[in-house]
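Subgroup meeting minutes
Present: P.N., E.W., G.H.
Scribe: E.W.

1. P.N. recapped why we're keeping a running log of single-chain structure predictions: easier to compare across weeks, and new members can see raw inputs and outputs side by side.
2. G.H. added today's entry (321 aa).
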Amino acid sequence: MIKTVTAIAALALAGPCFAQTTWQMPTPYPESSVVTRNVTQFANEVREATGGKLNIVVHPAGALIKHGEIKNAVRSGQVQIGELLASTLSNDDPIYEMDSLPFLVNNFQDARRLWGVVRDHAQKNMKRQRMTVLFANSWGPQGLYSLSPVESAADMRGAKFRAYNYTTERIAQLAGAVPTQVEAADLAHAFSTGRANMMVTSTATGVSAAVWDFLKHYYDVRVSIPYDLILVNDRALDALEPDVRDALLKAAARAEERSWSMAEEDDKANLKTLSDKGIKVSKGSEALRSDLKKIGNTMSGEWEKRAGPTGQALLKAYQTR
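Output recorded in log:
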């Protein structure tokens, strides 16, 4: 009897009891990057809103699972939630490449509008694979980094061009550069060892990788404004208590809304940081911008053929929305 009373007293002192669920969340990007900061805030908001019932542990920089393996890890249930660049799924469905088509969007308003058009298609596609798209997480505009000056596409010929998806690989091919696969976490090593000397990516990635240690030029040509997808395994999602699931979805909606403004402000700050660190920042010559737009037109035409009627319908919806 004494033991029973003692046990009850101990439980009372311990406070309210609830089932705590922990989710593991791999992301390919450094902790300091704008997208990782946003998902970290998202995870903190979920923990607070659920009173600790759902704890999402963010694993940055590909430390838990490499970028190319995250989708399958979420789908199989190896992890419950994960983040990946939408365009890395273009081999599964060319619609995921739409946000990376050169010069399709001109600003963050366009980028949000494009995601609004693509969202339902992406959600249906992921549902067939037993996953849910929780939210999109925006990057800043993609510009051109180089070790040597680039006045036109002719100066890109023969460059060792960092590629991380089909779009960047195709830009390299059309410009006469040599694409080489390099993930964000490996940038410093690839560039410092000469494996790459040119790339198209965001100012956020440039600052995270301290590109001023191995590159000299940044051309703010705004090729695209891509986004990541945060995917969750449907079995894990369905296993949550209704109030916890509701809190998760509300936090996801806030995170998506926040991501656009975070990315825009981050881009402005990063442009200044690049310049302050000695990177020569410019808008790029008219010749360079014209050459890149020609490459973009070629790629858009190729994409429409691959994407077929569905892609063409989505493109029309975006252009008329």
